[in-house]
Design a protein that fits this description.
There is one protein chain. The chain is α+β, with helices and mostly antiparallel strands. Helix content is 62%, strand content 14%. It is built from four helices and four strands. The strands form two sheets. It has a two-stranded antiparallel ribbon with strand order 1-2. A two-stranded antiparallel ribbon has the order 3-4. A hairpin with a 2-residue loop joins strand 3 and strand 4. Helix 2 packs antiparallel against helix 3. It is elongated and about 90 Å long.
Length: 132
C-alpha cells in the first residue's frame, strides 16, 4: 500500500508527487481506520431483535388496516344510510365481537365467508383471491 504525501502540478500539467510505501504496522493501522469508517454506516442487530422488530411492524400494520377498515365502514353507513353515532357504534361493536370470535377460535374466517355467501350471496375477494 502506498500513500501520497504531497503533490504539485508543473507548468506543463504533469502531477509530481512524493510517494511513501507504508510499513506493515502503518498499513494495518490504515486498514483498521478504513474498517472503522465502513462500520459507521453498518447497523448490527441480533436475530431475535430483528424478529421482534418485524413482529412489531406486522402488528402495527395490522392495527392500522383494522382502523382504516372500521373507519370506512362507519363512514359508508353514515353516507349511504344516514346512520348516526349510535347505529354506527352498534355495527362496529358487532364487528369487534365477530373478530373476537375468530381470535378466540369460536369461529373461523372460512365459516364467516360461507355464512356471508349463504345469507347474502356475496363472496368477498381481495386482490383477485378469495378470502378465507
Amino acid at each position: 500500500m502506498c500513500t501520497f504525501l504531497d503533490g504539485t502540478v508543473t507548468d506543463d500539467g504533469i502531477m509530481e508527487c512524493e510517494v511513501r510505501v507504508l510499513g506493515r504496522a502503518e498499513r494495518r493501522k490504515a486498514e483498521r481506520r478504513a474498517r472503522i469508517e465502513d462500520n459507521k454506516q453498518t447497523v448490527r442487530m441480533h436475530k431475535s431483535d430483528i424478529n421482534k422488530l418485524k413482529d412489531d411492524v406486522r402488528e402495527e400494520v395490522s392495527m392500522y388496516s383494522v382502523d382504516m377498515l372500521l373507519t370506512c365502514i362507519g363512514l359508508a353507513e353514515h353516507r349511504l344510510y344516514g346512520f348516526g353515532p349510535t347505529r354506527i357504534m352498534r355495527t362496529l361493536n358487532y364487528i369487534d365481537q365477530l373478530m373476537g370470535d375468530i381470535n378466540s377460535d369460536v369461529c373461523t374466517m372460512p365459516e364467516y365467508v360461507e355464512a356471508l355467501k349463504e345469507e347474502t350471496g356475496i363472496v368477498i375477494r381481495s386482490e383477485g383471491r378469495k378470502i378465507g
